[in-house]
Amino acid sequence: MSNQHPSGRIRPARSEQNRVAPARIQPARRVAYEVITAVRRDDAYANLLLPVKLERARLGAQDAALATELTYGTLRQQGYYDAVIELAAKRPTSEIDEAILDVLRLGVHQLLSMRVAAHAAVDESVSLAREVGSRSATGFVNGVLRTITRSEPDEWRARVMAAPRTDDERLSLEFSHPVWIVRAFRQALAAEGREEELEALLEADNFAPKVSLVALPGIAKVSEIRGERASKYSPVAGVSDGGDPALLPAVHEGRARVQDEGSQLAALALSRARPIEPGERWLDLCAGPGGKAVLLAAEAALGGVTLVANEITPARAQLVRNALKVLPEPPQVLVQDGRELGEQLAGQFDRILLDAPCTGLGALRRRPEARWRKQPKDVPDLSALQTQLLEAGLTALKPGGILAYVTCSPHLAETRAVVGSVLKNRTDVRRLDAVEVLSGVTKTPLPLGDGDDGHVQLWPHRHGTDAMFIALLQRDE
Ligand SMILES: C[S@@+](CC[C@H](N)C(=O)[O-])C[C@H]1O[C@@H](n2cnc3c(N)ncnc32)[C@H](O)[C@@H]1O
């Protein structure tokens, strides 16, 4: 029988007529999938790639918010979702094609953590699988996701938790953090007698932080950036009320910037550690991309201080220069290995910021994939580099000068251990009480743990900041 339609067009065969048209993939889901795949395949950074993709796809505000939630939520919860997928697929994720695993993770996020209708999540996932995988992959994705829809999110959680595990393994799955990071956080909290806060910390890491802004002293007023909520601690901060900060004139002009309150406090702990003497010389030893350098530079300009910024990576040094342009007299930017600057500039600086390269475990809220990318083997190399940079920084201090050692990681091997090991060999350096210094800086007292060494450890769950570590060290007169 001919398929010729009276209109002259070829009529589709019956089996084709009955086939359900593939679900159209919503642009927001496509963007999320592309970012998740690029993170896995190309080591892309979601926080850098997503805005580019959103711009290109010309998504409206609502779709952009959806794409962001899909991307960030899927990447953060990857560890937990993989455990669910393994149960539903009855095979380890290592045996699933990686492109299809991305499709499944994105689908599971919609089914277990968002209010997306099950049929929409499944159908669009199947369509995605059809695009990126083989014919059999569509059936597999359909089967696994439909299995997941048959139980409530709480039932899946109970099933995943049912296998006997150590406490850290349980927390690792429940809050989707690698076990070694759970362990590192436990140890850091225990060091200040607050181990019972571990779950709260892990939970805080799974939420996007509020957007904090800094009004650069002398060139912007806090009233220009104040959102609906006032900042709690930093005297130069404002909290965005959810709109695009770039629309604020002060931000547009570079006089105010997006900056975590913890980073602000780290810079202010140094600049406000004691009254500024005009003519002081300050150094930011590891300045890229320049967030703290520009706050220090603003403080320095008010106090008649000369600031020098240094950064080893030329491209990041350029970012520092760009950030500093907002100042009437931008500080000099060096491009050198900070480890060599100690001897070259020995005894020249009154204050030094060493915001050391680190694992960044304190900023997992902002970089959703970072927890899976960092490896425990990164830590010893970083500790060694941090130790060398700290030794160099102390050498560059004038007698009586102050150095702030800062990390955006609470890992003890990067914080207290580095400071402790360097101080063991330096009889001419003593710890200053950073807790007391910051109590004179913050608008309200910082609730801090019981560490008895005067160092400050900030936490997302307790302070709403990144987990910045701040130690102040002073060279003897
Ligand atoms: C934690 S980041 C600094 C962040 C910066 N203070 C800010 O607030 O924007 C550490 C920086 O140190 C740089 N760095 C790494 N090794 C270095 C070295 N040996 N000497 C100088 N800078 C180094 C990295 O390229 C990175 O830009």
TrEMBL record:
Pfam families reported in the protein's UniProt record: Methyltr_RsmB-F, NusB
Single GO term (MF): RNA binding
Residues of the active site are C408 (nucleophile)
> Which segments of the protein form a coiled coil according to its record?
none
Which SUPFAM superfamilies does this UniProt record tie to the protein? Answer: NusB-like (SSF48013), S-adenosyl-L-methionine-dependent methyltransferases (SSF53335)
Among InterPro entries, the record links this protein to:
MeTrfase_RsmB-F_NOP2_cat (IPR049560), MeTrfase_RsmB-F_NOP2_dom (IPR001678), NusB-like_sf (IPR035926), NusB_RsmB_TIM44 (IPR006027), RCMT (IPR023267), RsmB/NOL1/NOP2-like_CS (IPR018314), SAM-dependent_MTases_sf (IPR029063)
Ranges for the SAM-dependent MTase RsmB/NOP-type domain?
181-476
- The signal peptide here is none
Annotated region (Disordered) at 1-21
Q: Where does S-adenosyl-L-methionine bind?
A: C286, A287, G288, P289, G290, G291, K292, E311, D337, D355
- What's in the keyword line of the UniProt record? Methyltransferase, RNA-binding, S-adenosyl-L-methionine, Transferase
Keyword S-adenosyl-L-methionine found: yes
One of the GO BP terms on file: regulation of DNA-templated transcription
Similarity comment: family membership: Belongs to the class I-like SAM-binding methyltransferase superfamily. RsmB/NOP family.
Question: Which protein is depicted?
Answer: rRNA small subunit methyltransferase B
